[in-house]
Amino acid sequence: MSTKADSWGSRVGLILAMAGNAVGLGNFLRFPVQAVQNGGGAFIIPYLICFLVMGIPLLFIEWSTGRYGGKFGNHSTPYILNTMGKSRVWKYIGVFGIFTNIAVAAYYCYIESWTMSYVYHSIVGTFKDMSQADVAGFFNSYVDVAHSTTGIPYEAVIFYIVCLLLNTYILSKGLSGIEKVAKIGMPLLITFGVILAIRGLTLGTSGASDIFPEANAWDGLNFLWTPQFDSLSNPKVWLAAAGQIFFTLSVGMGTIHCYAAYLKEKDDVALNAVSAGFMNEFVEVVLGSLIVVPIAAGYLGLDWVIQNAGFGMAFQTMPYLFQQWGDVLSIFAGVFWFGLLFFAGITSSLAMGTPWMGFMRDEFNWSKNKGAWSFGALALTMGLPTVIFYNQGLFDQYDYWAGTVSLVVFAFLETILFSYIFGIKKGWVEINKGADIKLPGFYKYIILIVTPALLGWVLVSSIPDWVDKVKDSDTHNKEWFSDAYYAENFESTGTKSAIVEEVTPTEIKFTFENEKKVFDKATEKVKVETFKDTKIYTFDASKNQKTLVQVGDAINPKDKIATGDFTNNTFYKFLGRMLLLMLFLFISIVVYLAYKKRVKEGRE
């Protein structure tokens, strides 16, 4: 049995580190987008219910499971889970708790590096006098590694490596380094958030302009906080709410287990779990909803926000909006906003390194330094393809399979282990051991029945989407390497044709009828309107790519529109899935070698 070579310096530091693990980029970037895309106030009720019946129970399970495994000298999920069930399979289920963290850190640090870059550009005045379209174009250029916004070759790669090096250095200091960052980062994050939230609350109609005369920050707030009870019967909204709970609380990853494994046997997990969970919810529901959507609605209008909601919206809009505050305030606002995102990101990404480090120290006696830098090397190896091939969809494959599917699978399996194999009676005792608060008894039955049922429903209902992702059902250009290119869907249904409006040897501009969502103030509902949309395809003459269509042609999805040498995105998506599979197999092999080592030493 290995000894605990590391420990938390204080309860405050632990709670802040746990909250920092949960409070991440999703609180400020993903939550507002999910709320907007799922009807604003229609999203809030399912979201809060999922938090109470799935999020809180999973926090109880993971905190108590981690502490239980920690008393046997285990600090990551393979052998934490192994202590709770007799079957050898549980240590391999625990592979998810290392795999997910490395895979997510690989691309999460890339988003984190965007915030570093945007702090720099805010300070040097890059966004001054840029239009909203120019700011959006800046983001698109930044994620294309062939372009540079600073004159530094491969700027996105450089910022990514710097960000990863910073994470790795802090990790090499162990829990004390993480605790120090949490004690500094979390208060700064909340301070920056409150400053920007106050601006979101007070902006009102002062940001309206000739271009957006109906811009009103309060429209954004009303949209987010007006409950829509008909959403309770909409499975799509419930799935989105459940997915956001996973993303925001960092449950199903293995980081909570690892942090809790360093607790003493009588240390409270119930109050710690509730404290960290509700601190995360305060940051997400209160601060997260008061910044991006109200400020964007205050300058661009609620309809624009509804039609353009996306993960990158904050990077594509906020620098432009800050410029409306004047030269000096825009710099401070940019530093506050992107600094907030940076601290939210790094407190989460640091947590992702601890399961690998804990496992390698427990099983192979690796030092903190060796564990941290090996984690950095793995993250870099996995992450560089997401940086280089971001626009080809490889990043999205990581986010979907490692950042979504893996979390649901692991959370469901660990809940079954805790409730039915370890046993709910023992589990309930473990949760309440040393607790400073008395938990309501009905939570025992929520953990036993409601949580696994909800997780099982999310899991089963997601399977058709998994199949579609593997089959690349979202594209008509399925061959990796092709001598022809086919028109994709012009709008979401894929049933409408488009007219060729302009054509050159390397570019085609289509016009087609599309639908957009707008907010009807009279009914306080989102409605759909029809409008004329455009889509442009560009081709590369150096690859012998030539257009085949003529002005006035009516083109349907799947029609051939160009010939030449094409490497389609399906190749990069497949590459992403294979890299993830190789990582999972690699960690499984490492766990098997650890098992053989334990057997040889008489520890198994």
Note down, in words, how this protein is organized.
With 604 residues, the chain is of the alpha+beta class. It is 64% helix and 9% strand. The chain has 22 helices and 7 strands. It has a 4-stranded antiparallel sheet. It has a 3-stranded antiparallel sheet with strand order 1-7-5. The protein is globular and about 75 Å long. It starts with 10 loop residues before the first helix and ends with a helix. The model has no long low-confidence stretch (mean pLDDT 90).
Portion in beta strands: 5-15%
* Helical amount: 55-70%
| Weakly predicted, low-confidence segments | none
The structural class is alpha+beta
- Mean model confidence by pLDDT: 90
The biggest beta sheet, please? 4 strands, antiparallel
Number of helices: 22
Net shape? globular
Global Rg? 25 Å
With strands numbered from the N-terminus, the spatial order across the biggest sheet is 4-3-2-6
Q: How many beta strands in the DSSP annotation?
A: 7
InterPro entries: Na/ntran_symport (IPR000175), SNS_sf (IPR037272)
Keywords: Membrane, Transmembrane, Transmembrane helix, Transport
Membrane topology: Multi-pass membrane protein
Protein name: Sodium-dependent transporter
